[in-house]
Structures are given as structure tokens and as C-alpha cells.
Amino acid sequence: MFQQLASYLTQYKQVSIPQVGSFELVPKPAMLDVADKRIHPPGYLPQFSEKDFVKEHQLDFLATDLNADRESIKEQLENFGRELRRKTQHGIFSWKGVGKLEAGGAALVFHPETIEIKGLQALSAEKVLRKNVQHTVRRGEQEVLSSFDGVEEKSSIKKRSVVELVGWVVVLLSVVLIIFLVFSKGTNSNTIGTKMKVHPSNTAPTHK
Question: Which DSSP symbol is given to 203?
């Protein structure tokens, strides 16, 4: 009957066994293993509780699969659960693909096995580094340019640098213009001086 119970558990994610308890498959998301740099695929993690109530739907499923009436199936399931409970009193009972059961005083202790989804395998998780890629993020009241290599530049500082550069260019042009004007005026003065003529006095010198 284990085969039929496992089939029911796989399809409907829950199965009950009288005098033992219920098993439920809980979805397990994909997990990132940082140490191994691998992403493990999603799966199912079986959970156990001592609630052994059997649903009518489970009885109908077993009756159809085993080609027997419901009352016969109910009796077989009771005997199956009783025998399974007895086995746990003598050691650990292993349900392949689901987990292990053992007696823990008055209650049963369940050790689950992760059920993997067929077709899904673990993937390597390597960090991808791209150069010269930046994006804008906000830190407080400032916008910061952030890149993947850890270099960050503040946009406000960048704008201030451009303004300072323009200012220095203006100052330099002003100095050049002043120097040009000074030398230009000096040249004009010398030229005017050379063009001036001295006219001799019309009064002739007297001789004693």
C-alpha cells in the first residue's frame, strides 16, 4: 500500500495514515548557497503531524487504485497504520523519498527529506561584473552616481567642477586681454613720440 499512499501524496500533497499521522508536502523556494555559489532549485519539504483523520477522497482514490470497496480499504489502511506504528517501536522506519519515522516516547519523531522537482537542477551563481555601468541613486538629499566597481561620484561635485573650470577660463582670458591692451598702448606712445618734429626758432643766434 506504500506505493498507493506515495502516489496520493505526490498528487494531492497530503496523505493520512490511521494510528500514525498525516504527511503534507510544503513548497520550498529556491535557495542561494553563498558558500558553494550555487542556487538550489525549488522543491517540497514533507511535514508530519499526528492528526490521523483520513479524508473520504483518499479512501475513494485507494479503492479505485486497488480495485476494492471503501470499507475494505478502510480496514486495510487501519492494519497498515498499526503495523507501521509497531515498526517504529523497534527502530527507525524509512519511507523512501519522504523521510524517517522513529519512536520518541509517546509521540513519533519525523526526519523529512527534501523532495526535488524533476527536471530542475542546481545552478552556479557567479557574480557578473560590468565595467563603466552607472546608475543614479538618492542618499538623503543628494543624488549619487553609483557604478558596479564601487566607485561613486556625486553629481553636485561634478557640476561644481565644470563651473570652476569655466571660471578659470574667463579669468585667464581677462588676464590675456589686459596684457594685450597694456602692450598695445605702450607701442602707440612710442610711435607718436617718433613722429613729433622739432621746429627751430626763427631767431638767429647773435654774435658778439
Answer: S
In the chain, where are the structural domains located?
2-124, 155-192
Cβ atoms within 10 Å, residue 49: 11
90: amino acid identity, one letter: H
How far apart are the C-alpha atoms of 65 and 1, rounded to whole Å? 10
Task: Please check whether residue 117 is in contact with residue 41, taking contact to mean a CB–CB distance below 8 angstroms.
Answer: yes
Checking 7-15 for CB contacts under 8 A at 24+ apart, the result is 7/65, 8/58, 8/61, 8/62, 9/98, 12/57, 12/58, 12/61, 13/44, 15/58
Contact call for residues 58 and 15 (beta carbons, < 8 A) = yes
Of the candidates 193, 15, 206, 191, the residue with the CA atom closest to the CA atom of residue 98: 15
Question: Could you give the CA distance from residue 132 to residue 11 in angstroms, rounded to a whole number?
Answer: 50
> DSSP 3-state assignment of 45?
strand
**Is 149 in contact with 129 (CB distance < 8 Å)?**
yes
Contacts of 117 (CB under 8 A, 6+ apart): 41, 42, 43, 44
Overall pTM > 0.85: no
128-186 pLDDT, tens digit per residue, is 656 555 556 566 666 655 554 444 445 555 666 677 777 777 777 777 778 777 777 65
What type of residue sits at position 203?
T
